[in-house]
Each structure stands twice: as structure tokens, then as C-alpha cells.
Write a structure and sequence with these properties.
Elements (H helix, E strand, L loop, with lengths): L1 H21 L34 H5 L5 H30 L7 H41 L5 H14 L5 H28 L4
Length: 200
């Protein structure tokens, strides 16, 4: 009697275990075809786009900075870069102009004065160049209606010529040519970097 009851309980447990094995758990991502595991594309479900997203299609078609953004960017970067380079040059000049009988405090004061004066002067000059370049580049784009490599070159020409206009036509022409060459070289280098080093 005990053997029959034990065998019936064992068979009941086997049936219950078999039924549990046949149960398939609910996967909320079956609709996306990701039930096959990690290799089936489950990682693609939460892959976010790397390109910027725009609310309106007009914003997506307008792939350039506005006049105000251009002025802020070029003027700020120009002043900051010029101040850093000028400060470094001032430090070098201050160290080089020290005298034998100078105390440590006097030498430090000389270096600080030279770096501050030179950094401020060069930063102002490069900031003015950035301001002129931003205005001319945005105006050139507005007049031409095209955004290509010719805009920066024309902006560089006009910036150099305007910056040195008070020194005479010959100096202004040379400065304009140098500005156009510099702007064209920067734009060409940027395109080369984007083409051959896209990860940067």
C-alpha cells in the first residue's frame, strides 16, 4: 500500500516538473525580435542616435552658426588664444629682462607685469580679428546664399585688409592675401581631418 502511494506521488511530481519545463516565460521584447539573446539585436533596442535631433526640419537644414553665435565664438576663442600666447611671450620676456641685482620679489613682479601687458595686448588684437572675421563671413554667406569654402577665404581676405587699412593700400593688400591664405588653409585642414580622421 505504501509503495503504490509513493509511486503515485513520484509520478505526480514528475508531471509537475514536466509542466514547469514546458512553461515559457513572458518576454516583453519578443515584438522587437530580440528573444534570441544578446546576439539577436537586443543591444540595438536602446541604441541612441549620435546625430543631433531637431524639432523642426528647418533647423535640420540650417547647418551653421548664426551671426551672434559666430561673433561670440570667434571673438572669444581669438581673445582667449591671444591672451594665452601673449602671456607666455610676456613671461619669457620678463625672465629675459631680469637684472643681476634684482630680488626674487622684483623678478616675479617684472614677469607678472610683462605677461599681463603682453597677453592683454595680443588678446585684444586677435579678438578684433575674430570679430571682423565673424561679421564678414556671416555677411558673405548671406549675400552669396551658399556655404562653401569660398566664404572663409573671402572673409580672411577682407579681415586682413580691414585690419591693416590704416597702414596704406600696399600693406592692406598683403595683409588681406595673408588672411585669405590662412583662412583657406584652416578650412582645408579641417576638411582633411574630417575625411581621414573622422573619430576626432
Amino acid at each position: 500500500m505504501m509503495s503504490s502511494s509513493s509511486s503515485s506521488s513520484a509520478s505526480a511530481q514528475e508531471r509537475k516538473f514536466g509542466a514547469e519545463k514546458e512553461i515559457r516565460l513572458y518576454n516583453p521584447y519578443d515584438f522587437y525580435g530580440t528573444s534570441g539573446g544578446a546576439s539577436s539585436g537586443a543591444a540595438d533596442l536602446y541604441r541612441l542616435p549620435s546625430a543631433p535631433e531637431f524639432l523642426f526640419t528647418e533647423e535640420a537644414a540650417f547647418q551653421r552658426r548664426s551671426l551672434g553665435e559666430n561673433i561670440q565664438y570667434y571673438t572669444g576663442v581669438g581673445y582667449l588664444g591671444g591672451a594665452v600666447l601673449g602671456g607666455a611671450k610676456g613671461i619669457f620676456d620678463g625672465i629675459r629682462s631680469r637684472e643681476v641685482d634684482d630680488t626674487t620679489k622684483l623678478r616675479l613682479n617684472r614677469v607678472l607685469n610683462a605677461s599681463g601687458h603682453t597677453g592683454r595686448s595680443i588678446g585684444n588684437k586677435v579678438g578684433v580679428l575674430g570679430l571682423l572675421y565673424a561679421g564678414v563671413e556671416s555677411g558673405t554667406w548671406y549675400l552669396r546664399g551658399a556655404d562653401d569654402i569660398l566664404n572663409p577665404v573671402l572673409a580672411g581676405l577682407a579681415t586682413g585688409a580691414l585690419y591693416k587699412a590704416a597702414a596704406g593700400p600696399r600693406t592692406a593688400a598683403i595683409a588681406g592675401a595673408l588672411g585669405g591664405i590662412a583662412a583657406g588653409s584652416v578650412v582645408a585642414g579641417k576638411h582633411i581631418v574630417r575625411r581621414y580622421l573622422p573619430s576626432l
